[in-house]
Design the sequence.
């Protein structure tokens, strides 16, 4: 990842609403939520998984579950310094409508915290979801992580470095698989001052998911758009090659002409025809 891409990540959270507006024609995240169907699922909001103010999550439960369902825990992007679960109603609906229980977690952000606190929060959220999945109709033996951009880093790091889940009182064996959407997994050296401050240095290998693949890991799906100018799509290919070198099951999905925001937008109901991402994610979850 070059310096201009790091700068793009650094500014991504601050311009998210603007980019969404440009992408969908005067549609902010809040306006996008207006287009999301409210029928077919219920939402349990602001469930606390830790003591800090941002350590809470929402759980989307499909109506009429007759058997324990797969569970998908999602971390949004925003450069680790911005974002809110309240903007991702479209994600919750997209997969609740597939029959999955969906959790969308807030986590602590820079500059209030630095690496690795957002990973520790993600691990605590996973522990909570594993311990409470059955309460909401979910199967604790079929939990998947997913994330977009910075959130993809969080999800894939938790699936790559087992110590975060272990330290939180969970275990990587409880994770059935992980999905990264437009994520950075191999992006050293850092050149952006904000990222250097956030991660505690320019070239700390331990901050990179790819550096923690030293054995077989849970199945992963790594998706990216070929027109992504914020996070180099090559991150997915490099991460997949490292996983394959240890016989870990991994799929790479590259969507031609799709950009960084376009990828996550393609999960929202008005834009699903632009990629097959929703089907690809649902098929990955069902296959594992």
Sequence:
């Amino acid at each position: 990842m070059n310096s201009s891409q790091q700068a793009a990540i650094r500014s991504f959270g601050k311009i998210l609403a603007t980019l969404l507006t440009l992408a969908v024609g005067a549609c902010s995240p809040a306006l996008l939520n207006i287009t999301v169907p409210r029928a077919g699922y219920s939402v349990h909001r602001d469930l606390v998984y830790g003591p800090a103010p941002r350590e809470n999550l929402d759980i989307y439960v499909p109506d009429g579950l007759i058997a324990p369902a797969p569970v998908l825990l999602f971390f949004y992007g925003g450069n680790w310094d911005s974002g809110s679960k309240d903007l991702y109603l479209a994600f919750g609906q997209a997969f609740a409508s597939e029959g999955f229980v969906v959790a969308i977690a807030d986590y602590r952000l820079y500059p209030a915290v630095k690496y690795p606190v957002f990973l520790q929060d993600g691990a605590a959220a996973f522990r909570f979801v594993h311990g409470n999945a059955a309460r909401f109709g979910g199967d604790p033996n079929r939990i998947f992580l997913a994330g977009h951009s910075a959130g993809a880093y969080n999800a894939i790091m938790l699936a790559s470095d087992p110590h975060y889940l272990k330290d939180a009182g969970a275990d990587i064996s409880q994770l059935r698989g992980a999905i990264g959407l437009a994520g950075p997994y191999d992006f050293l050296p850092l050149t952006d001052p904000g990222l250097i401050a956030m991660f505690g240095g320019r070239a700390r290998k331990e901050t990179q998911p790819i550096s923690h693949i030293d054995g077989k890991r849970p199945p992963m799906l790594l998706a990216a758009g070929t027109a992504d100018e914020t996070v180099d799509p090559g991150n997915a290919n490099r991460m997949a090659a490292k996983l394959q070198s240890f016989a870990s099951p991994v799929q790479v999905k590259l969507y031609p002409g799709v950009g960084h925001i376009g990828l996550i937008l393609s999960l929202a109901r008005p834009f699903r025809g632009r990629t097959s991402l929703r089907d690809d994610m649902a098929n990955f979850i069902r296959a594992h």
